[in-house]
Amino acid sequence: MNRRDWIAGTAGAMVALGATAQSVRKPWPGRKATPALQLNGIDGTPWRLADERGHLLLLNFWASWCEPCRAEMPSLEKLAASQAGSGLRVVAVNFKEGEPAIRRFLSKTSLQLPVVRDADGAAARAFGINIFPSTVVIDRRGHASFILVGEFDWAGEEAAAMLRSLLRAEAAPTHATIAA
Hints:
Mean pLDDT: 85
Structural class: alpha+beta
């Protein structure tokens, strides 16, 4: 499938989900383990999901060719900066783009979020991501809580209320742990 067909299919799927310019919240399957992730940053530095335990984590799956992804990035960055002291971390997981494409995107923006590469798409498949952007919310114990599919205003009141609740929750509902 070429990129144009994929984008058209993704847009059709979003319309079918009733989410043209908004996101849809999908619960994480209760018995499904949170996939273990080991990815590299664009500088080659290894990054492991297991190392993020103790922090509320937003894993934002994106690509530079995805317009909603580009539109969402500023609000994710604003959120990360405003919540840095609260234990919230935001990691941008790039979907199947080479380092040169990612660096071109970063050079045109002021994006300061940590960026890791899902070079072969295995991380997106493991989390069931097939629409971009999608953000996986992972609690402080390392358990996936839910996925927001589609562009979301992370600087808006809906995000603020959701994050206040998540950051206050010391004991999240029981989910399967990160796979070893």
